[in-house]
Design goal:
single chain, mainly alpha, Serine Threonine Protein Phosphatase 5, Tetratricopeptide repeat, two-stranded antiparallel sheet, elongated
């Protein structure tokens, strides 16, 4: 009986030793994983850019591992913050998110880049890209225009501080398009009140449109609508002044012809 107990104890000891050995081995492997050597910045950059090239699936679809590429670039930023590849990687992350249509994430990186590196030659590019992020999130003219206004903030910065950059011309074109979208939004609201016979509310918005969005092609039509509002409100002097302004500045427009007829009717 005593010998049986001794054999059992010896077996349990051997099992315990084996378990400890396994645990020690696992611990070593864990430590190795924790302190695994990070590849060189050049290698990570090459792997990230290669991932962005994508690979063809059955010859009809190209799969791009954006998340994998971003992971490579982020390792450069985290482990080699003072290398030339770090700044390039910050932009590469932003571009990868943009190409993957994750505009909120891309915007965050573009904005951070221009704030952290205000003198860098790529700042005009990041401002242009940030504007595009907002523009692609913007809604139709009849919807909320917060994203459109946000895009204009970046375009204004670009045109003010980097007027001679290669992005200035496309920025001007987008600026005009977005201003037109905002003006269309305001005119749509004004027309809503006009059609309901709420001429005071309509006139207020037509005036705002003329003051805030001049030179976009709305002026003749909106002046006519504003003059009509004043006429409906029995504010004849103001209506005549608006119609005369319309005739004087936009003589060849169809709305000037309407204004002339209205002025003739109003003659004493």
């Amino acid at each position: 009986m005593v010998f049986a107990r001794l054999r059992l104890a010896a077996r349990n000891l051997r099992i315990a030793v084996a378990v400890l050995a396994l645990c020690a081995g696992a611990s070593c492997k864990t430590d190795e994983a924790l302190f695994e050597e990070v590849p060189a910045a050049e290698q990570l950059w090459a792997e990230g850019t290669e991932a962005l090239k994508g690979r063809s699936i059955l010859g009809v679809y190209t799969y791009v591992d954006y998340e994998g590429a971003i992971e490579k670039f982020q390792k450069i930023v985290d482990n080699y913050p003072n290398s030339d590849f770090a700044i390039r990687s910050e932009l590469a992350i932003a571009d990868a998110y943009f190409q993957n249509e994750k505009y909120d994430e891309a915007l965050s990186y573009y904005r951070d880049f221009s704030d952290l590196h205000p003198q860098h030659e790529k700042v005009p590019y990041t401002l242009w890209q940030a504007a595009q992020c907002h523009e692609r999130r913007s809604l139709a003219p009849g919807r909320d225009q917060a994203a459109t206004r946000d895009a204009l903030v970046f375009l204004d910065r670009l045109l003010l501080k980097h007027a001679h950059s290669s992005y200035a011309q496309p920025a001007e074109e987008m600026w005009r398009d977005l201003q037109t979208r905002l003006a269309t939004n305001v005119e749509g609201i004004a027309d809503f009140y006009f059609d309901r016979g709420e001429y005071e509310a309509a006139a207020e918005r037509y005036r705002a449109l003329l003051n805030e969005y001049p030179g976009l092609g709305f002026d003749p039509r909106v002046l006519w609508k504003l003059g009509t509002c004043y006429a409906e409100l029995q504010r004849s002097d103001e209506a005549d002044r608006i119609f005369r302004t319309l005739v004087a500045h936009y003589a060849d427009s169809e709305f000037a012809s309407r204004a002339r007829r209205q002025l003739a009717i109003n003659l004493p």
